[in-house]
Amino acid sequence: MTTQLSIPAVIGATENALRALLLTTLASTVIASYAEWVVLNTVSAAGTDASSGQWRDETARALKTEIEPIEAALRERGLIVGETQLSDDGFEALVAARRAVGAATASLVEGISESDVAATRRVLATLRERAEALVRVQS
User: pLDDT tens digits for 67-94?
Assistant: First the structure.
């Protein structure tokens, strides 16, 4: 009799494999770590709201680390400027990295029906929301 892995075990193994693929892909870019990738994407998404600093607290909680050293490293390399915005070089680096990540991950869903991909998104979103709710209750 074969024992099925629990959903958290399957998701954890998948997360580890995807993180390894991301890091391998980012190695060919100027983005030096997963944390830098997250910060650059967060600053990009925040746009003019990035200067409010709210993104720092949220990102620090998500990464479970201090953001200041990451931001300082990105600033030192000229990828973040001003109050906290992407420089032209930072924008170009992020666009290039997103393109590389997109190319590296495109084959992951090949051969999987659109309805299965949509169902996967819905289930994972539900699991994430429930996990976040449990974290809030336990904090």
Answer: 999 999 999 999 999 877 899 999 999 9
